[in-house]
Design brief:
Order of helices and strands: HHHHHHHHHHHEHHHHHEHEEHHH
Strand content: 5-15%
Strand order of the largest sheet: 2-1-3-4
CATH class of the largest domain: Mainly Alpha
Radius of gyration: 21 Å
Oligomer: single chain
CATH topology of the largest domain: 2-methylcitrate dehydratase PrpD
Low-confidence stretches: none
CATH architecture of the largest domain: Orthogonal Bundle
Length: 400
C-alpha cells in the first residue's frame, strides 16, 4: 500500500503538529504525569487544539487515537507502523460510520469507535503472534473486548473539563489492553455491534451496515486548516470566499448550514476559548474582521474583539445541507446581496490541502508550542524515515 503509506505519513505529521501545538497548554502538566511512554502521554494533547483530522461520514477524529496507539507499542519499523495505522483508521471509520444520529446526539464517536481503532492498531503493530486461533479471529476478539466497554458522552461540551482529552487517552489505553489480553488468549464477544445487547442496540435507533470500501479509507479523511470545530469550518470557508469576492463583510451576515453544525456550534456569545472554537459566530466574525482565523484567535481578547461583529451574524439550518450531511459538510454565506455556497470544505478529499499546506500547518503548530527547532528533524523522520525511533525520541524529549 505505497500510496496509503505516503498519505499516512502526512496524517502522522499532522497529528504530531497538533501535539506540538498543545505543549504549552494547560493540559500539558496532566499529560506529563500520565503513566506509560511518551506516546501514551501525547494522547492527551493530540486533539486539544481542535485541529486533528476528521472523517465526515463517521463524524470522528481517527488521528489522535490511532497514532498514539501505534507509537505506544514501541515498534521501530516505519512501514509496519504505517500499515498498522492504516488498518486502525479503517476499523475506526468503518465502525464509526455505522452510528446514526441518535448515537451522535449523546455519544462522542471518536471515543466509541476509537476503542475499536486502538485495538486493531495495537494488535497489527504486534503482528501475527500470541496464543489461540488465527490472527483474523484475534482481531475480532480484540475489537469485541474493547467494544464491550466503549463509551464517551457529549456532556463534556456543557462543562469546563478535560473529558474530551481523557476519551482519547482511554481509547488508546483500553484498546492496547484489549490487544494484550487477546495475545494472552482472552476472547471477546464477536457480535458486540449487532448483538441483542450490543452497541447498536444500546445506542442507535437505526444503525447503518458496515460498508466494505474498495480502497483504504484513510484516503477519505479530511485535514483541518483552522483551529475550530470542524462543524464551523464550512461557514468559515464560505465566509472567506465571500469576503474575497466582496472585499469586505459589512452589514448583516447570514450563515446557512446543516443541523449538527448548529447543534454543536451555534454560540453567539462564547464564554471560553473552547466555546469560541465551537462558535460559528465567533469564527465568521474573525473572517469579517481580519481574514483567515489564526491559532491565537480564540482567547478572551479575541472574543471581546469580535462581540460587535458577532451581533451582525445569524445562523440557521437549511434542509439542502442537512440532507447532504454527513457525507458532505457544507454551508452558505450571504452578505451585501451576494452569496457563496460550498458543498465541501477546504481539507476534504474533494478540496484537498496540498502537502506543502499540511506541512506549513504543522510548522505553525510546532512554533505555537515552542518547538519550531524540532520541525525539520521531525519532518525528515516522518516523511522520509524508515524507522519510527527518531519520532519517539523527539516525543520523549517533549513529554519528559
Amino acid at each position: 500500500m505505497p500510496d496509503e503509506r505516503t498519505r499516512a505519513r502526512l496524517h502522522l505529521m499532522d497529528w504530531l503538529g497538533c501535539v506540538a501545538g498543545a505543549l504549552l497548554s494547560e493540559t500539558m502538566p496532566i499529560a506529563r504525569l500520565q503513566s506509560g511512554n511518551a506516546a501514551r502521554k501525547a494522547a492527551w494533547l493530540g486533539n486539544k487544539l481542535e485541529m486533528d483530522d476528521v472523517h465526515r461520514m463517521a463524524i470522528l477524529h481517527p488521528g489522535p487515537v490511532v497514532w498514539a496507539t501505534c507509537l505506544a507499542q514501541g515498534i521501530t519499523d516505519m512501514d509496519r507502523l504505517l500499515d498498522a495505522a492504516i488498518r486502525g483508521y479503517e476499523a475506526m471509520i468503518a465502525i464509526g460510520s455505522t452510528f446514526d444520529a441518535r448515537h451522535y446526539a449523546f455519544w462522542h464517536n471518536t471515543a466509541t469507535a476509537g476503542l475499536f481503532g486502538a485495538a486493531v492498531s495495537a494488535l497489527c503493530c504486534r503482528g501475527d503472534t500470541g496464543t489461540g486461533d488465527g490472527f483474523e479471529n484475534r482481531l475480532v476478539h480484540a475489537m469485541g473486548l474493547a467494544g464491550s466497554v466503549t463509551g464517551g458522552f457529549w456532556q463534556m461540551r456543557h462543562e469546563p473539563c478535560d473529558a474530551k482529552q481523557w476519551h482519547i487517552a482511554h481509547a488508546v489505553n483500553t484498546g492496547t489492553l484489549a490487544a494484550d489480553a487477546v495475545l494472552a488468549g482472552a476472547r471477546g464477544p464477536a457480535f458486540i455491534l449487532e448483538g441483542p445487547q450490543g452497541l447498536h442496540a444500546a445506542t442507535t435507533d437505526a444503525a447503518r451496515p458496515i460498508e466494505l470500501a474498495d480502497h483504504w479509507r484513510i484516503r477519505d479523511v479530511s485535514f483541518k486548516p483552522w483551529a475550530a470545530c470542524r462543524h464551523a469550518h464550512p461557514a468559515i470557508d464560505a465566509a472567506l470566499e465571500l469576503k474575497r469576492r466582496l472585499g469586505h463583510l459589512d452589514g448583516p451576515i447570514e450563515i446557512e448550514t446543516y443541523r449538527d453544525a448548529l447543534a454543536f456550534c451555534d454560540r453567539p456569545d462564547p464564554a471560553s476559548e473552547i466555546e469560541a472554537k465551537f462558535s460559528i459566530q465567533h469564527s465568521v466574525a474573525l473572517v469579517a474582521d481580519k481574514g483567515t482565523p489564526a491559532l491565537g484567535d480564540f482567547d478572551e481578547a479575541a472574543r471581546t474583539g469580535t462581540a460587535a461583529t458577532r451581533a451582525r451574524i445569524t445562523v440557521r439550518e437549511v434542509a439542502e445541507f442537512s440532507e447532504r450531511y454527513p457525507r458532505h459538510f457544507g454551508a452558505r454565506a450571504r452578505c451585501a446581496g451576494q452569496e457563496v455556497t460550498l458543498i465541501d470544505t477546504l481539507g476534504d478529499p474533494e478540496r484537498p490541502m496540498t502537502e506543502d499546506e499540511i506541512l506549513a500547518k504543522a510548522q505553525s503548530l510546532f512554533a505555537l508550542g515552542g518547538r519550531e527547532d524540532d520541525f525539520a528533524e521531525m519532518t525528515r523522520a516522518v516523511m522520509h524515515g524508515s524507522s519510527a525511533g527518531p519520532v519517539m525520541s523527539i516525543l520523549e524529549r517533549w513529554l519528559a
